[in-house]
Write a structure and sequence with these properties.
7 helices
Amino acid sequence: MPRGRRHVVVAAPPAVRAPADLAVIAGPADWIELRLDLLLPLGTTSVAQWVAASPRPVLLTLRSKAEGGAFEGSFDEAARVLGDAMHLPGVAAVDLEPDVESLVEPCPDGVLRIVSTHTFERYLLPAPAGAIRKRAVPLAGQADLGRLNRLVQAPEGGFYMPGGFSVPYGNLAYLRAIGRG
């Protein structure tokens, strides 16, 4: 595997509804992304229980409604949840939205800080020292693919990110049909 690349499997319903399900989905993944915005509402399982149950290092994500997730809390609440959780054994990385990133203390040694956004519209500011930037965008059709390609090629578009990366996501059948999946 090329240096710096990680195979990440996303832990979220319907495939994952309880911590024991993590062992089933892990497969050849390097990391398991715990989508806390989708997992925590399922019951009384704590973040610590989810992390402890993971057979792989964990990427923590708490995606807000504004960024396409399910978390309806405030930026301060997100910062508290992720700030506390990044100290748990087994956490490899924490994915922070720009509005939350400035509210979270520096990550412990060995925990990667990712600053990400999930829209075409929002410009991603430079990441703070020690962090990397990520922009993930939904691809719903050919027009979105063309838009992504133009942005990747244009430094002023915010997708050209030395030290960062862009991630297209969406309907897997569509991504496979265009040779991206």
